[in-house]
Records
---
Amino acid sequence: MLAVAILAAGKGTRMKSALPKVLQPLSGISLLERVLANCNQLEPQRRLVIVGHQATRVENALSHIHGLEFVLQDPQNGTGHAIQQIIPTLHDFQGELLVLNGDVPLLRSRTIERLVQAHRSNNSGVTFLTTRLSNPMGYGRVFANKQGFVEAIVEDKDCTEEQRTNTLTNSGIYCFDWKQLASVLPKLSTNNSQKEIYLTDTISLLKVAMHIEVNDPGEVLGINDRSQMAKCEEVLQQRLREHWMKEGVTFIDPSSCTLSENCIFGKDIVIEPQTHLRGNCQIADRCRIGPGTLLEDAELGTDVRIIYSVINGAKVGNNVVIGPYAHLRPKAVLQNNCRIGNFVEIKQSYVGEGSKVSHLSYIGDAELGKKVNVGAGTITANFDGTRKHLTVVGDYTKTGANSVLVAPIVLGSRVTVGAGSTLTKNVPDGSLALGRAKQLIKKGWSV
Ligand code: UD1
Ligand code: CA
């Protein structure tokens, strides 16, 4: 039987934030959600989250995850005190207790699996993860022999100058024999510089304590302040880019681009510098995105080309060219072979196959047919001050430069709209529509 307990009650003082540390986002997902996801593969029988500082807020943030047991730690007197709080909850539990620090988000599932397996095979009281850090400041130092048996963990603040030179650090990820741990937990004291009850003090009380060294220190980076947070973000981004490069995506300048976990790429895609993909993005084969582009929850067909643009919640067909400086907003749907040019904004609109909106336009709440040519500066006036209205434009219709289509309005197919027109009435198929003041000429005006 396996139970998991996640330490998430601390305030995270060093973050200097109104948001509890474990709710801080890393690539859009909170530290705590990441820690929970990391141990999913083990399918633990019980999942306990120890909450304290802003407990309700932390619980609410996890309300979408089923089967969690929240245990309150109030006040927060240290990591050992936190685990003492779960004794009643696990009073009849037998098996291993995996303890995860809520602020160590980058651990790989297979490393946790390795830890649990090693613990089961060496039959120890506790097995935990360590790593060697060139700068171990802030971490507990681990004193162990060559066989991997651990004598003690000494917290950074409690180390002598000599102890502090030890670079073997505690990662805060432990697999305990629960019965043994429960029997030593009441023996912990606050005899240390922070006057807290340390979980790390159980190490010297258990028979026996062993550690496993993690080769990639990036996996066990802990987050105490925003500088460590930035470091973790960097590690996470590097992992995501490496993954997709192995899958056939080219990055021209990888370190200048960021991705979210929920991006899916096809093959032979090129991501140009300064390009960022957030949320759920799906990018099909042979797209070329960037430079300088932001995509969020975007779906792109094959062979799409985008330069210096912002695409949010839009769906784009195959072979579409976008930008520079275009803005696609939620529910913009572009069919194959469209062209969206500079300074064009499209919101909640359908643009039919092969249509072009090339310059300086706003298209909102509109349905454009196929092969429509929207002239430079054409605007759909969709808002009457209270409500939004629909503009419908038929196939092969052309609007002249600086047209204003006042919605609700329907233009038929093969309509031509004269430049500078403001249209408020529907236009039948095949017509020319003009809605502008007649030009006056006054000869000899300035002689
Ligand atoms: C802890 C370890 C240290 C290790 C480091 C790894 C202890 C005493 N020290 O130090 O050896 O190198 O993690 O990252 O365990 N928390 C509670 N209740 C509390 C205090 C903390 O739930 O009363 C939670 C925090 O929310 C956090 C985790 O425990 O998620 C770790 O607490 P933190 O104060 O960051 O410990 P460190 O000083 O980093
Ligand atoms: Ca920490």
Note: The chain has two domains: 2-226, 241-433.
---
Amino acid sequence: MINTVYNSWCRDIAGEGLLFIAGPCSAETEEQILATAQGVKKAGGHILRAGIWKPRTRPGNFEGVGAIGLKWVQRAKQETGLLTAVEVANPNHVELALQYDIDVLWIGARTSVNPFAVQEIANALQGTDKIVLIKNPVNPDLALWIGALERIDKAGIDKIGAVHRGFSSYKKMPYRNEPLWQIPIDLKTRFPALPLINDPSHISGKHENVFDIAQTAVQLLFDGLMIETHIAPEKAWSDARQQITPDELAAMIPEFVLPKDKMFDADLLKSFKLLRKDIDDIDTELVQLLKNRQNKIEEIGRLKYKENVAIYQKERWLNILDRAKNNARENDINQKFVEQLFRLLHQESLKLQHHLFKRLKSGKK
Ligand code: PEP
Ligand code: MN
């Protein structure tokens, strides 16, 4: 199982600091790769990334330069000493990447979603000592992500890492891919030794938001960042909107505030303990309040049944929502959050009353 020494490869490369993987979405020309590599090196990056084969949503878009790009990447490595990383989506890609001595092979989000494809890649990787990174699948399914990691682990690869690049969503939102931070956090909780790398570029979809997302990841104790970097982002052949320049990368890297994992400090630990105790007490109270609310929901449900009144009452619901939002505003809590919470509460109340209705109708108490 994925639990042992995986973080050592990451520490070996980045020491106690963050691991930086940077480079273009796609390799386009030899000059572009070499110039980007120089910039990434100067900025303090560790690994040069480049997409050689591009999984595009629709055909007809630029699908990558193919194997010739591996030569450019290899040359960039010779010239800068950077390690190199490319995306692999099938055994043929793996074979070529190994042939060109690429150091890091990553499995993209459109591939990690498919256990057949991951297994084929795992089989092709058998016996290598390369670093393998697995991006989260496009849909928010932690088990599927873990499954992909396990397939690589079972192939005997022991330098593994996970890359969080956000999740597809129909929601109207300021991101290209929704971060859903709880998912990578759950992964890290289950596998503390597994290096976790954040890809703020594919989450944000916009170069101006890359830093904020990356800083959030850093605060959440991610081990590294994969940042799309291009010498002329506006002219990039893919993902032009989200790439930053090597100079921007160089300016960004020193800005990250690294939280210290100071949990060993006795005084600090005591403060945490006290505050956490308070939070636990509040949580217990919250659940008790929910129980009280549920009792009232049941009482009113019985009345609705008796008087044959519909369970869903639109006016009442709009009124609940309105009150909740006003209360949120007055108490300076995020109104959107409170709204979501009350939608959930209301949904649950309707469900409870519906079950109650069925129970009473069948003659039970
Ligand atoms: C990429 O890294 O350029 C890429 C295609 O990413 P993802 O698999 O996360 O969409
Ligand atoms: Mn990209």
Note: The domain at 7-255 is CATH 3.20.20.70 (TIM Barrel).
---
Amino acid sequence: MKHTDIRDLFEDAAYCGREVTVCGWVRTARDSKNMAFAALNDGTTLAHLQLVFDKEKLDPAPFLKLGTGLMVTGTLVHAMRGQGVELNVEAAQVLGECPPEYPLQKKRHTPEYLRTMPHLRVRTNLFNAMLRVRSEVSGAIHEFFRSRHFTYVHTPILTASDCEGAGEVFRVTTMPYGADGAYPEEAAYYAADFFKRRAGLSVSGQLEGEAAAMGMGKIYTFGPSFRAENSNTPRHAAEFWHVEPEVAFAQLPDIMEIAEDMIRHILRSVLERCKPELDFFQTHLEPGLCEKLRGAADSSFGVVTYTEAVRLLQESGAEFVYPVEWGCDLQTEHERYLTEQIFRKPLFVTDYPKQIKAFYMKQNPDGKTVAATDLLVPGVGEIIGCSEREADLDKLLEAMDARGMRREDYADYLDLRRFGSVPHSGFGLGLERMLMYVTGISNIRDVQLYPRTVGNIR
Ligand code: 4AD
């Protein structure tokens, strides 16, 4: 269908005074004695195009019902009120009718109500803005890595290993209902399945990413990860998008520099390209959002060791639900206190106790901590998990044995330490957590098109 994007009409003054055809959905409508008005949105911009109907020329009734899909031709003119342009309609056609039971009748709905209709909430300003920012953030991530000669690799989604070793893997099977009863042992049951062994959805592309980096030097993956965590929180989803660079010949400070540069690049891109969307979020969700993002884009991030962070939390006098002591995993409340109250900017917490971190992290000479860091940001908490990898075969085996991991399940990974093992590091950024930080949206369910969480899939 030959038509012009509404975004172009707002951005290119040359359209003014010309006849144009646009398509879109009616967002709001108003009827008066001689005239009628409808706000049309086609998803290319947050702004609605005002349609002006002269009742002497055209009966506007069929074109004023909320949610109706329209194709409209008319003359684009300067808006009577305010800035911008509007369309004096000469001809209109209903492409898709929308009956009054259309659920998005009100101007504003609660996020909880909108979550009950993921297929329709895309037609709200909130999702219009969020999805455009999500697209820009994704583009900025690719731009960042590609401009630095990282190779974009696609790690498998179906896998036989559990990268994080936390047992949060969704199983993949073609076995029929009740088949397990026919097998005396677990091993025999898995051996009869599609892959002839236990398989699942990847929680992280890291292990395969490390293999790629050991030949390609600098790689990144950007795809979905899956976690069967029974965590019903505003920042955990069962399916999320994961950005994972892996860099050969890089130690912890090198990878931290890359992570910080990447976050800054994303922030600058969004500040430059998504101004209307950020203004929208700032008005409706988080006062001071743009200043927060500009501040983070222009200044260096904080760095503190885990040991020092624990001391700062203990001495803060703040009351936490979970008490803080050396050796404990930092909870969201601790993370947020550190980044929001103490440092007031994005913060790397480094050198965590080895017991609370994954087997693959490089052990520090102190014997107690690992060369790992989490990046915490205000409003969200952890958005990046990062580490130098243990490149020494014996130390890696020791860490696996201490966790009761089966060596044969990680044979390929262990080979990487046998054949030309070099220092290397990487990190994982959760795209949705980054989006929560950038938009001020406080629930991960509202930065995904179709969120999957415990007890929720459609
Ligand atoms: O800290 P995590 O578990 O680290 C890894 O998966 C490493 N293998 C990454 C690497 O070094 N290549 O996860 C990394 C990030 C977290 O900081 C968080 O942003 C996000 O992934 N994440 C989740 N996001 C949404 N829902 C969940 N359930 C998430 N689990 C992790």
Note: Residues 125-147 form the longest helix (23 residues).
---
Amino acid sequence: MSDQVFIFDTTLRDGEQSPGATMNIQEKLRIAKQLERMGVDVIEAGFPVSSEGDYESVRAIAKALENCIVAGLARTGREDIDRAWNAIRPAKYPRIHTFIATSDIHLKYKLKKTQEEVLRDIADAVAYAKKLTDDVEFSAEDATRTDLPFLCEVARTALKAGATTINIPDTVGYTAPTEYAHIMDTIRKEVKGIDKIVLSVHCHNDLGLATSNSVMAIQYGARQVECTINGIGERAGNTAMEEVVMAIRTRPDLFPYFTKIDTKMIYPTSRLVSQITGMKVQPNKAIVGANAFAHEAGIHQDGVLKEKLTYEIMTPESVGITKSSLVMGKHSGRHAFRDRVKALGFDLNTDQIQKAFDLFKGLADRKKTVFDEDIVAIIMHEVLRIPYRYRLNYLNVVSGTSAIPTAMVKMEIDGEQVRDVDFGDGPVDAAMKTIRKMTHSKSKLMKFAINAITGGTDAQGEVTVYVQEDGISVVGQGAHTDIIVASAKAYINALNKLEYQKTKQKGKTMKPNYTDESR
Ligand code: KIV
Ligand code: ZN
């Protein structure tokens, strides 16, 4: 059996199923390209039949990628499979990923089908997909709660029909590592020919066991791990890619396997996904959390200063947190800046680099040191923007212990200069109310969160807002050393995204004279 563990990234499909993590097509493309650069083997780009938007983004990713397999998810029905195939067929390496539930609970309550009917569906779907492409993956949804002899029969059926990868998901995050070991071991012993195809594992983290289950499955024969960046995904999320990859790399004695992931790209990719989805990484998150390499206790600091090995099982540099990358100042040159931007995973054209560099210089004047996070925020919030209808030109807020919070706003709306003033319950409220009035927005602000991007009182504040209108949800983000300005920018970013989605739904395009990152 091969020593390579294939990394199947489902950030754009299962990851996008995280509440509030919807991404637009440009954002998905950006993540897909970054995943390809970091060495992911398979990218599950979406579930094409689920919406027009999903179909379009899977197709765009299929066209854009050159080295990765691009998978499209489909239930076992032919309409699903055709839709998935049409979306992925421009890919150099397309894969149809078809699935059906196999546990008694799902058969009885959800599918209302017998085991025999499910076996027929599997045989039919895999054989049908196989006529379209050679690379067919089959997943037995809720496999870990499936009667084990029946699960073996399911695997035999998928194998016979031509599946090249068989995935055993812990859909509800219910299983424990020893149980996974037993399931994988049984399938390998009972299903003749299973060694000719790739066995895969896909774990959810409801009991916090997703990574443990995944690495246990590898030890029992799985050679594909399905995972997401930062562990985002349905409910408590999926197995975090960075955890599995670093476990394999850090413990070769236990896991004598390898992946093709460039581990130095883990941290920049984690930041990129967090920025795009608006989902913060918890500070104590393994590998990519802000505290993952911070030694707080005196006894630990003393040990690390004497010899890193005392308390450090892997270096921050190995996951892309390099010391030299942490700080840039106003004396940093364009060359160093461009190199850093590249290392952070952004592929910017000359105009975009120039814009980012000018903004970086402006920030460096206001702030002593500029961190990676600040650079990512500049690029995400200011350079890589969707076409806009609204742009903030000027914001002045009066607030304090004895003042009624008042905001004066000047904005560009459809190319026209507009100004207005309003009051609020606080300075942020005043700014948002004024913008809302000026844009006549009917959208609802669902969530508002402020985060300091780095430490210190001169840190940039990063604001994330979730806005909804007519069933469309968008995440808006803004960053600035002034949190009121960051809030206004985040709100305007969300309103622009809403406009963008609305015009796309109507099949129109935004006015051509507007900045469009995708051009
Ligand atoms: O969790 C799950 O079972 C899935 C399948 C579609 C693979 O996401
Ligand atoms: Zn899943």
Note: Residues 483-505 form the longest helix (23 residues).
